[in-house]
Amino acid sequence: MAFSTFIFVLLLAIPGAYAQELYTFSESIDILTRHNAELRSAEAGVEIARNQLNIAYGNFLPEISVGTNYLQKQVNDTNSTGYGAEIVVTENIFNGFRDLSTLDDAKAKLEIAEATLRNVKAKLSYDLKSSFAGLIYAHENIKLAESIHKRRSDNNSLVQLRFESGRENKGSVMLSAAYLQEAAIDVKRAQLTLDTAKTNYLRVLGLAAGKDVDISGTMPEVVEPGVTPQFLELVQTVPDRVIAVSQVKTAEAVLKSTYAGYYPTLGVKGKIGRNGDTWFPDDNDYWELEASLGWSLFNGGKTFFASKSSFADKMVAENNLRNMDLSLATALKTAYAEFVIAIENYKVSQAFVEAQNVRAEIGRSKYNNGLSTFDDWDIIENDLISRQKNLIEKRRDRVNAEASWERSQGRGVIP
């Protein structure tokens, strides 16, 4: 027991023991880039595609190998041994454009991997902004809920006082008490929402769910849109369209590769070496040069049906691209419109709160002086509380709308 107490006191004495870690928005970006598994997976996909492209380039280079051999044999009770060493060079001169098709396919797949990485970064940027804004909202919601609880408590005391003086009815007292109970529940709900928001924030960063963290500071200010974007130009650079275009290139490369079966193949092979009965052989030099030409006349129709299948794949990819162009233009315009409306909604919400604050002050004064009924005052109070809740929601929605607009373009804060 004494030892446990000593450890507890020691931990308390250590600065930062059990301390909550606070992250700014810029620090959150840095942590995400280092820990998020989805981002690291997409980056690995680009590296894989880049290596596959290097492999495809290797098909155009000669293959060089060296080898040695040892031979022992017996003929009519006579034993003999021999050694050999040689260098072999093999070069594929022509294989029906198959190597060129493989290279085109690898280039297209690298473009797909890079566009996929852009997509992942845009998605994670949206997730980070949304989760960070969600945490800000959760903290504001707790403060607002506590403020509303205090307001409901003051209102309940005022109504109770008027009831005791015979100037209010029992129903108003009961309704005021119910409002107070509801406000207490809202405080608990807001506190639970904060815990959920933290868990989501940790998920986006790629950190363990049980880690004790919170945010510090604010987010970058939302930038209001200026001139209406050129949506058709934006469509051309959206990662989803880049992927669709590259998928057409891949389908064309595969189709070209299947046509290789209709062409002859040409290759050369050369070797130089020595052989003899000692190691390392220094006699009997030799060299060879071989050229091979081949042509597949019939392979059971595999080339024919493979080319038909590849042609169908190409048609599918081209139609997907056409559909992508149409859907992306709609998605961009929708995201932009929602962003613009979210900004205007926030401004309107601010105006309502300012107006309701003034009305609430006047309403309270009139009710306190007997110049207004409880029902009239109750409407004003409920409207103020509703507008206050709406304001912090619109502030969060404005950030989410900006993040969604950026995501639709394949942009974001992730470098």
Folded structure, characterized:
With 415 residues, the chain is an alpha+beta fold. The chain has helices at residues 2-13, 25-35, 37-58, 98-164, 170-205, 231-237, 239-259, 302-368, 374-409, and strands at 21-23, 63-75, 78-94, 213-215, 265-276, 285-294. The chain has a domain at 96-262 and 301-409: Outer membrane efflux proteins (OEP), CATH 1.20.1600. It is built from 9 helices and 6 strands, in the order H-E-H-H-E-E-H-H-E-H-H-E-E-H-H. It has a 4-stranded antiparallel β-sheet, with no helix packed on it. The model is unreliable at 1-17 (pLDDT under 50). Pfam families: OEP. Keywords: Cell outer membrane, Membrane, Transmembrane, Transmembrane beta strand, Transport. Its main location: membrane.
CATH homolog superfamily of the domain at 96-262 and 301-409: Outer membrane efflux proteins (OEP)
- Note the run of SSEs as H and E: HEHHEEHHEHHEEHH
Q: Percent of residues in beta strands? A: 5-15%
Mean pLDDT: 90
| CATH hierarchy: architecture of the domain at 96-262 and 301-409 | Up-down Bundle
**What's the overall geometry?**
elongated
Q: Specify the helix fraction band.
A: 55-70%
What is the CATH topology descriptor of the domain at 96-262 and 301-409? Outer membrane efflux proteins (OEP)
Given helix and strand content, the structural type is alpha+beta
The major sheet is characterized as: 4 strands, antiparallel
Across the major sheet, the strand order is 2-3-5-6
Low-confidence stretches: 1-17
Rg, nearest Å: 37 Å
Distance between the termini: 52 Å
Number of strands: 6
CATH class of the domain at 96-262 and 301-409: Mainly Alpha
Q: Treating each run of at least 4 consecutive H or I residues as one helix, how many helices?
A: 9
Protein name: FusA/NodT family protein
Family: Belongs to the outer membrane factor (OMF) (TC 1.B.17) family.
Main location: membrane
InterPro entries: OMP_efflux (IPR003423), TolC-like (IPR051906)
